[in-house]
Design brief:
The complex is a heterotrimer of chains A (463), B (502) and C (144). With 463 residues, chain A is mainly α. Helix content of chain A is 65%, strand content 6%. The chains are: A mainly alpha (463), B alpha+beta (502), C alpha+beta (144).
Amino acid sequence: MTAASLPGFPRPRIRRRELGLLLVVAGALALGNLSLGLTRNGSLGLVDPAGLLIYLAALAAVHLALVTAGRRVDEVLLPAVGLLGGIGLLLAERLPQDLVVQQVGPAVLGLASLQLVWLVLALVIAVVVAITVRSDRWLRLYKYTWAASGLGLLALTFVLGTDVNGTRLTLDLGPVSGQPSELLKVILVVFFAAYLAENRVLLADARVRVVGRLTVPPAPYLLPAGLMLALALGIVVIQHDLGAAMLFYAVFLCLFYLATGSKVDVVLGIALFLVGFVLLALVFPHVRDRVATWLDPWADPLGTGYQTIQALHAFARGGLLGTGLGAGLPTVGGQLPIPAVHTDFPLAALGEELGMAGVLAVLGCYLVVVARGLRIAAAAADDVRALLCAGLALVIGVQAAIIAAGNLKLIPLTGITLPFISYGGSSLLVNGLIVGLLLAFSDRGPLPPGEPRRARQRGGGGR
Amino acid sequence: MTVQGRGGRRERPLGGRVARLSLALALVYGGLTLGAGYWQVFRADDLSRDPTDAGMIAAARSVVRGRILDRDGHVLATSRRDASGEPYRVYTDASLSAPLGYASRLYGSAGLEAAYASELLGTGGDDPASRALAKFRPRGQRGDDLRTSLSLSLQRLAVQLLGTDRGAVVALDPRTGDVLAMASTPTYDASGIANPATSRAAFAAATGDPGQPLLDRAIQGRYVPGSVFKIVTAIAGLSSGAITPATTFPQQPAAESTGLLVSGYRVRDGHHPFTGSEVLDFARATEVSCNIWYALAGLRTGGAGMDDAARRLGFGAPIPFDLATASSQLTNGGGPLPGGFADNVELANAAYGQGEVLVTPLQMALVAATVANGGVEPRPRLVTAFVSPTGAVRDVSGGTLGRVLSPGDAAAITAAMTQAVEGADGQRFTSGAQVAGVTVAGKTGTAQLGGTGEPHSWFIGFAPAEAPTIAIAVVVEQGGHGGSRAAPLAGEMLRTFLAAKP
Amino acid sequence: MDPLTLAVWAIRLAFLAALYLFLALVVRALLRDVRAASRDPAGALGRLVVIASASLPAAGSVFPLDAVTTLGRDLGSSVVLDDPFSSARHAVLTFRGRGWYVEDLGSTNGTLVNGVPVAGALPLGFGDELQIGDVRMRLERGLR
């Protein structure tokens, strides 16, 4: 047996399960497109067939690239993400194209075209990362460097950034503008995973008694992480980005639990957060306003409560099966009823047009992505990689949960995006990066032989 | 958790924690599902039927509202298109402004136009099934028609008879609760408000009118009832057994001249001196509208008995109806006596319709209807059916609000009320209410308001007394004695109605 | 109901059905994986125990072995060694019917068995020590 004939050597491997799921995704998206076309034009035909074909071709290309690379990476993540992205494209297609307009050279691109461009770029990033990342030393060893760069990015945004809707999230770099807080998510997860994994024993076992039977990890080990977190949260709150603060904190708590297994610490963490939040609400008027609007949007139905009320009405109009793509969101005086629906309230639009059935399906897709990610984490080789994968998966899942809960008035509204569905270049690219990393770390290594050579040649079926 | 198929993994407790975390996440998503269900299923109906809902507003602009018809099929409200092709409402007669309301682009909607907006706009009816089915039909261009119980001729007549006075008339069928007429004056120009060209001016006129035409006095106006309330006292006394038709009070004739002393307060009467020293029984007391007798009857029934009967009739709560109604009251409440009365003086005054009693004309019409219907109170209704553009009819079932008194008691009260209109002494007060060839039962009321103003003129009644087909309540604000304005107005209404129906 | 409305509704419902078909297939795949995992005993052929290590995997780790087990720094390896002296694809352990063999895949720093550098495919017995970089491992009998 020579090295070249080893099954571990990257040789093209058929990914049957992924192919099957992608075909279902393609069929679903085509049906969605036809549905939109029927509602819009009254006849059977695709809306923007070029866009749909480009997207499906991109998915196919990614699939083929993964097949060629031959690594045994997860086969469910790509189709799930492809479905979510496709639904986002359908939504972008359905909304008026002039919500976002950008000049790229001679062409003027509208909402759907821009979303398509970002999605394809995100897929490219995902597949490149999935194929080329073969080791995580660079993440693990330089964790403090990563943390510093993350904070530096945040500070840069604070100093140089532009105010959009009362939040300073955007960094304008000439023709391109982005939201560094998105990238910060990944950087912080890398740092937390590395730090918690290395110190998990100390955090779990060498505890310090605080009061009664309540023990907490010893200060020197909790301090760096705690400081880092508080710093990030502080800057984020000053920048009025409550959603990101909630996201970082929730992911941190989850990773902490995975590292130490201490439920008590998690409960303490949640309690601390609630206390902190109440204090913030008392001190900062903008936090107070958000909470007041959340508790009773009907107190100011034409002002601060308008967005929330319109979103709830959209959900109500959708009912169980929805009004159909393109048939909902009745315009009043030529304007969509929900302001900023493509960034802040995509779930409300989906709720109205696809009904509760559609909303549950979309939530199900996010749960699939998170579950898959957590499973990759559970099967990972060591703690750091496990926490890393878990953290990345949780970033997507918790972010989706936070924005969905905000849309449904279960928690105050925040400004973060619904991954893969909301319009937003930075969000899509970073989520593509996350998926790429998850795929890379999900490599299952060579197929155990013992199967007949024939089967091995065929790639041995998908698993 | 064991590892899968890849050599080189060790057992780790992390697997268990991951499983628990996955479960926690699944629970969070389950919570999201419940949240979605709350808004998309549980609250879906009331949110999407709210007039401020974007869907409703959009429908109102593109869908032609269904027509509103009276009981004989006459069109009461219809739609026309303006120069730019958008529909607007036109109402047949200004007398319909109270029940129908208006529907305009600038000022929203009111009355039946608001209450039944989703049926009129074709976005579905009252039950989730019909609304779900409405989604399957292609977005129609027209909504359902409303068939009402109103009679256009009676409605017009009521407003015409009220003339320049402020007041209200409610006429209904005591057997079914169908509201035949529901007039409130002054009226306003609903067509003017609905027409985009004249919207602003008409609405300004309506809101600026000191007579408050936008107030539907028939169901929202609360008035001192005066003697018409004695029927309620009669119901309370008879059904609780405190009094019988033969009940007399020995101190009553003397009290006519000296006044009845109740806890240091003198209840005065004095408007039937012709009875002299006659000891009145129930029917006679009703015929001459004796305050003393009724005050004593009320005291004997007691606050609890009064309150109980009043609640059965619908006092103390809005009456179930197509439109929002105000609730009538026996007393402002808070007093130590049963029923919330402050003291016996108030109870005595309330018994003959003064004190702190406030009633709506609809409530009093229902009181008359209850007696007319043998003691069972009908449920009032305006809309009797929905007719879809394709001709499918969906009936709205009527009903009752329960039995308030026994048939025997109802018969006794009917007899007393008949005497009040047809009797020799009764005619002194109610002559205008008589209809040739028909036995009319009724009661007038002169509601003293204190101060120097004229009292409200009231009349409630029904006809024919043997087998009533119409019950009526009339109030003319500051119209003087019951017999001056209300009784003749009611008589004219009854005459017209009964003449038309053989 | 006219044909257009029928078509609209049919396609709308088909779209929702396709979404749920996708979810069902994924759930089925997940369940199948879990079942396969519990059915598939790993480590029956042999185990690799890490005696000493300067980095990852930590000393004391036990790796169940498949019939072909690759070792190296690459994430695609069966046993991922984080040692700086380990190549991406360093060595492979194979079970050929009767016994274990170790083969160096042309690594930079070589593989040692009981202190002796490996050339070609060397038979490996239970209890033998394998060294890659600073990581020392011992081949042990599998759990039945």
